Amino acid sequence: MTEEIMACYGGGCYGNDPLYFDSQEEERLARMRNKQLTKALKEYRHQELKKLKLLERQGKILDIRRNIKQSIVVILGALEQLAISLEHESNVKRMHNILQEASSQGDAALTDELLADIEVLWRDAGVQECYSRSYEYQLIDSAKYFLDKVEEIRRPDYLPSDQDILRCRVLTTGIHHIEFDVHDAGHPVSFSVFDVGGQRGERRKWIQVFDSVVAILFLADVSSYEQTLREDQTKNRFMEALEIFEQVWKNRFLKNVSILLFMNKMDVLAEKIQRGRSISALTDKYPEVFPNYEKFIPSSSEKIEFLDSYYKPEGDGRKRRNSRGSKSADVNPDLIKTAVYVKHIFMKIVKGEVVLNPTVQKISKDWHQNHSCEYFYTCAVDTNNIQRVLDGCRTLIIRKHLERFGII
Q1: 361, exposed or middle or buried, with CB in 10 Å at 0-12, 13-18, 19+?
Q2: What are phi and psi of 219, to 5 degrees?
Q3: Which pairs count as long-range contacts for 289-298, CB under 8 Å and 24+ apart, including other chains?
Q4: For the segment 77-106, what is each residue's pLDDT rounded down to a tens digit?
Q5: Antiparallel, parallel or unpaired: β 187-196 and 175-184
Q6: CA 292, CA 287: separation in Å to the nearest integer?
Q7: Residue 289: HSE in the Cβ half-sphere, 13 Å Cα cutoff
Q8: Which UniProt keyword terms apply here (predicted)?
Q9: Beta bridge partners of 9
């Protein structure tokens, strides 16, 4: 006796043999049952996906609490270094509790009691003063964002928002391979992305993914000009980024690989400029690399180019694109000037006008003939900005891939 085999697809269920019905009513009822089954399967799939997304968001709560713990411990540790006292004597005990818990529990998540202490400490004037001088020590960019939200994060029903997840910092170690499809002109195009860590100890691993690379997404933190490396307190972080960029641009294994330069963290740059932290100090420290910032004047086209990619937050936290007539008035002129100034420095490296580390191997005139460097002003936590940038990158990557194989 042959077993019946039934296969169900989006359009219906089919067996081994053609479907025969004794009457039209029987056929109608069968088709109705088929539609009900298909609908039930779709609803079940939708509910399961919702559960998975919920579990994924709940899993981020631990990382967010770690970010809060790391931030407050670093700030409290810097109080003594900067000779800053707490405003209220009652907060000294809270500070000792947190530091003692951090040293004994290591990377464990915060308890609700400690979160309550952190919420009170964060409002202390001494802690706020210490935070205002965070450029003098190592502190993650999202520290203020999460410390401002401690009351919300403490709630039992707290669920991270999209912005919470985007701002959550988890150190990249090793190489992470991500595959996804992007539709271009109605056809799916497969992309493989390798995410690598930028720390000094991670860079030796980069060579493993150089083979068959079509393009490199180079993320540069443009707000790091007043910070030093965690690994080397004497090394300026922005100078290190420029040197790495030059090494990648001149690497003999990447002569045919184009670079997509993401000048990232424009939101952090805007905050620093608002607080009066200018990039001009680098002009005095590295005059051979940085042209005089005070005398630098961006062109009108460069200003428009930046403003077209800049999204200003509204009061409700959402992003909107300003109309061209109001852009210039809404955006700090010093932010525009600094962003364009940073772009000029990177482009000077691309053109060979600035050499940070002379190479042993001679660079010929046609060295960069088969690759290019495209730049973008980005804010990683602004999904609208990143979507526009990635749309442009997608087209560029596809074109470079086709050029590489002589198709166009």
Answers
A1: exposed
A2: -95, 120
A3: 289/239, 289/242, 289/345, 289/354, 289/356, 290/345, 291/344, 293/341, 296/337, 296/341, 296/344, 297/337, 298/336, 298/337, 298/340, 298/341
A4: 999 889 999 999 999 999 998 888 877 766
A5: antiparallel
A6: 8
A7: 20
A8: Cell membrane, GTP-binding, Magnesium, Membrane, Metal-binding, Nucleotide-binding, Transducer
A9: 12
Alpha carbons 189 and 180: distance in angstroms, whole number = 8
Q: Tokens 């409700």 label which residue?
A: 316
Helices 112-122 and 125-132 meet at what angle, rounded to 10? Answer: 80
Residue 36: half-sphere exposure toward Cβ, Cα within 13 Å: 6
Question: CA 47, CA 53: separation in Å to the nearest integer?
Answer: 10
Tens digits of residue pLDDT in 296-320 = 999 999 999 999 886 544 444 444 4
* Beta carbons within 8 Å of 34's beta carbon, 6+ residues apart: 12, 13
**Cβ-proximal residues to 180 (8 Å cutoff; 6+ apart), any chain:** 190, 191, 193
- Mind listing the pLDDT tens digit for each residue in 148-196? 999 999 888 888 888 888 888 877 667 777 787 777 667 777 777 877 7
What would the two tokens of residue 282 be? Answer: 């680098």
What one-character DSSP code corresponds to residue 109?
P
HSE, side-chain direction, 13 A CA sphere, residue 52? 6
Say how far apart CA 134 and CA 147 lie, in whole Å.
14
Q: Which helix (H) or strand (E) holds 181?
A: strand 175-184
- Written as six digits, the tokens of 60 are 């981020």
- Distance, CA of 246 to chain centre: 22
Q: What is the pTM of this model?
A: 0.73
Confidence of residue 4 (pLDDT cuts 50, 70, 90): very low
Task: For residue 67, give the H/E element and its range.
Answer: helix 24-81
Report helix, strand or coil for 376.
strand
